[in-house]
Amino acid sequence: MNIAYVGLLRLALAFLLYANLTFGGGSATVATIRGAIVERNRWLPDEDFSHVFAIARLTPGTNLLAFCCGIGWLLRGWRGAVVSLLAASIPCAVITAAVMATVDVLARNALFTAGLRGAMATAVGVTAVTCWTIVKPHVSRATQWRVIAVAAAALIAQAVIPPFYVLLAAGAVGFLFPRTA
Amino acid sequence: MNAFVLFLVLLKATVTSFAGLASISVVRDELVVHRHVLTDQQLNEAVVVTRSTPGPVGLYVVAVGYQAAGIPGAVAGWAAMTAPALAILPLLILFRKYLRHPRVHSALQCIVIASAALLLATVYPFAKSAVTGPVSAIAALVTLPLMVRFKVDPALIIFGTVLVGMSMYALSLTTYL
């Protein structure tokens, strides 16, 4: 599977829809975007998707926006990066400003808060599934123990050191000990 | 507060952090402790509001900007939130240039695995705050087979559970949610 040619308008619409309308933070949004551009539209191979996801974790600021920018760049170069970044950030920023202006009214609305509680529960499941979908392309009979070892070490390390350094350490381990065929 | 100064303050916070809420300590130090533009309560409110709106958690800087300087402040917050994302481009160019090198490929593979593990580490604290009763627990669990086995779009599942939550309110059953 190769990287598909995607029109800038289609790209903008995809990020407009999937990056701005998903509750539950970045991980739930990544799962939604993956479903749209890898599984349904087949714009990008899974491997490229997970590479961008990993590098976005090493980028300063909001990882999700770096991720959207990176996907846009892979699909349509610099213009795709800018279009994806704007489409992924402007509508939700407008929603946030609007909610801030009406926060007292919304917080008292029990119907709104009940709907929100339902959405947040689903986001837990979506986040758990995302972990598997990200790591799945790298799992095979030959790599399963390596995957388990790196994942377990990262899980233990994140309790004591900041995530950025965990990722750097994982990268250093991978660089120093490449898997032999 | 001047919107440009606010942009610089928020940019300093976002560019020196590597996750949505990680910048909050710098924001608090600048706007609450030193400049007295916000209170702790307002900062908390900004975080809570962005957890209840769609989009990334890092959006809280837009809410903070709005509280500090109205609409121009929200624009400053948006600019400070989006600008660091462009830093991924040189990183991507660098990694992809050397992707076929076994060591670089291996390094990237380990970063992908570790990033998935870090994501997994967020599931438990997230579940503790989001799963408040039997129905929300079922919603969280049912999501797994719906996505993995039946390939249902997560946006549809989330929309469905919003409707479930609202229906439970209409039926006065929110204690089970």
Task: Write a brief structural summary.
The complex is a heterodimer of chains A (181) and B (177). Chain A is mainly alpha-helical. Helix content of chain A is 76%, strand content 0%.
Kindly describe this structure.
Chain A has 181 residues and is an all-alpha fold. Chain A has two domains: 120 residues, no CATH class; 43 residues. Helix content of chain A is 76%, strand content 0%. In chain A, helix 1 packs across helix 4, helix 2 crosses helix 6 and helix 3 packs across helix 4. The model of chain A has no long low-confidence stretch (mean pLDDT 86). By secondary structure, chain B is an all-alpha fold. Chain B has two domains: 84 residues, no CATH class; 89 residues, no CATH class. Chain B is 73% helix and 0% strand. In chain B, helix 3 crosses helix 4. Chains A and B meet through helix 2, helix 3, helix 4, helix 6 and helix 7 of A and helix 3, helix 4, helix 5, helix 6 and helix 7 of B.
- The low-pLDDT segments of chain A are none
Quaternary state of the chains:
heterodimer
Outline type of chain B: flat
The largest pleated sheet of chain A is described as: none
- Share of residues in strands of chain A: under 5%
Helical proportion of chain A? over 70%
- Approximate helicity band of chain B: over 70%
What is the strand content of chain B?
Answer: under 5%
The tally of beta strands of chain A, per DSSP, is 0
Would you report the number of β strands of chain B?
Answer: 0
What is the CA-atom radius of gyration of chain A, in angstroms? Answer: 18 Å
The biggest sheet of chain B, with number of strands, parallel, antiparallel or mixed sense and barrel status, is: none
